[in-house]
Specification:
about 450 residues; 14 strands; alpha+beta; about 35% helix
Length: about 450
């Protein structure tokens, strides 16, 4: 039987699906029904439907992810490309997406699932002369199998199987796989794969190669490295890492389950229910309730209202608050204001640094992965070398807009001769009052060239 998936794939796939569903939000979870919200014992089908629909999902994971990506991309990266591959700035991917779009996709995948593959490829059929290379992307679910081996004293990726989208094969039960190997040179193969099932397990796999082997070259010479990177928050190795968002997602789902119980309890107990005791029959049974209704009860009958008393719902509300605080400690600061209960200022500061460490390491790895492929793209083309490529992401994750009072103090210090012009400009840059990507020399040149710039007060 052909092996098409790594031994760890199925276990990881369950975690990936869970994270995707939680990030997708409330509608996805409600449609999943008992998968994430088990049916309480004794409920009818109609009651369970009402139970699910009445629950409210707190979209912490999605908002946290959006906030993290936004913190990285709020400042444009520093990017320099040789002219030959300059077109990759606006069309970096196989689908024609810009490098900015590719960057956001990579950050989202690495921060949430902890796994994202990028493959450098070169246009072949129908490509215009002078076309630049492009990058094909593969999410965690599409990375099916891999192998790393010691080659020439270095650990190398020697085998990679990827699921490749082919819209012509949709609804046919056939998948298209891209298989990359070092044989010993870099070789590309495509297969159509059909799995035969008997119950929940795959019994056999039929695999048919599509087309001939492809051996890409650089200046006519074969390549002895697979031009792909598998990015995790911690390294560029093919090893599977625990998805960074898994813990947050698990707590988010616990919050969802308690929320369902809480709102179901409110539904059952929030409205007082009338009761009547005595010789009641169909003729004298009350039919309406409210200020416009008039009840005539038999002699000796009693009426009253059932109202909820007790601490059960309050305990559920406390549990929701505790889970919200727990999600905050797992990285959801942008959806939870304030520090945790009984948490000192120093503890809060350490927690904040811990939360930023995942973001920082993920940025390092995404930057390293994209830099590696862009430099290879430069080497793949002529003229161009790896040294011509510069790609740097900013690490200023928190907005540092300067306070007007500080700006006034800096201006007074500069005009009084207490600080230099460079120090004044450097502080404007740190305070994000000038382009963070602009060098101080360039800012001075712009000042000198601008006839509309007024002279500094107190400066001749």
């Amino acid at each position: 039987m052909t092996k098409i998936k790594h031994r760890t794939y199925q276990e990881q796939r369950q975690a990936y699906d869970k994270i995707r569903d939680v990030i997708a939000g409330e509608d996805r979870l409600k449609n999943a029904g008992a998968r994430y919200l088990p049916e309480p014992e004794g409920m009818t089908t109609a009651q369970y439907t009402r139970y699910v629909q009445g629950a409210s999902f707190y979209a912490v994971a999605e908002r946290t992810l959006r906030g993290m990506v936004g913190a990285v991309t709020r400042n444009a990266p520093v990017l320099e490309l040789p002219e030959r591959i300059a077109g990759m700035r606006d069309a970096a991917t196989f689908e024609g997406h810009s490098l900015d779009v590719l960057l956001e996709s990579a950050l989202r995948e690495v921060l949430s699932l902890g796994r994202f593959a990028m493959l450098l490829d070169y246009p072949t059929d129908g490509a215009a002369p002078g076309s630049a290379p492009f990058i094909s992307t593969f999410d965690a679910e599409s990375i099916l199998d891999w192998k790393e081996e010691l080659v020439g004293g270095r650990q190398k990726l020697t085998y990679l199987r990827l699921h490749e989208t082919n819209h012509d094969l949709e609804d046919t039960g056939v998948e298209q796989h891209l298989v990359l190997t070092l044989d010993p040179a870099y070789t590309v193969k495509r297969y159509h794969v059909k799995s035969q099932r008997n119950g929940p397990d795959i019994q056999s796999v039929e695999e048919v190669q599509v087309g001939e082997d492809i051996t890409p070259t650089i200046d006519g010479s074969p390549m002895f490295d697979i031009p792909a990177v598998i990015v995790s928050p911690y390294n560029l190795k093919a090893d599977v890492e625990k998805p960074p968002f898994l813990d947050l997602v698990n707590v988010n789902l616990a919050h969802w389950r308690v929320s369902a119980d809480y709102y179901w309890s409110l539904y059952l107990t929030s409205q007082p229910t009338p009761w009547v005791a005595g010789s009641i029959n169909e003729k004298n049974k009350p039919r309406q309730i409210g200020s416009g209704a008039f009840w005539v009860l038999p002699q000796g009958a009693q009426a009253g209202m059932l109202e909820f008393t007790g601490a059960g719902i309050a305990a559920q509300k406390t549990a929701l608050d505790d889970l919200t605080a727990q999600m905050a400690t797992l990285g959801a600061r942008m959806v939870y204001d304030g520090k945790g209960r009984n948490e000192t200022t120093d503890t809060a500061r350490l927690r904040h640094r811990s939360e930023l460490s995942l973001l920082h390491s993920s940025v390092n790895m995404v930057e390293a992965g994209l830099t590696k492929l862009l430099r290879l793209a430069a080497e793949w083309t002529r003229p161009g070398t790896a040294d011509d490529v510069v790609f740097k992401l900013h690490r200023d994750f928190v907005t540092a807009q300067m306070d007007p009072a500080i700006l006034t103090a800096l201006l007074k210090a500069y005009t009084a001769g207490a600080i230099s012009h460079d120090t004044f400009l450097m502080n404007l840059k740190k305070g994000e009052l000038m382009d963070v990507n602009r060098a101080l020399d360039d800012e001075r040149d712009l000042i000198d060239e601008d006839d509309n710039v007024l002279p500094m007060p107190g400066v001749a």
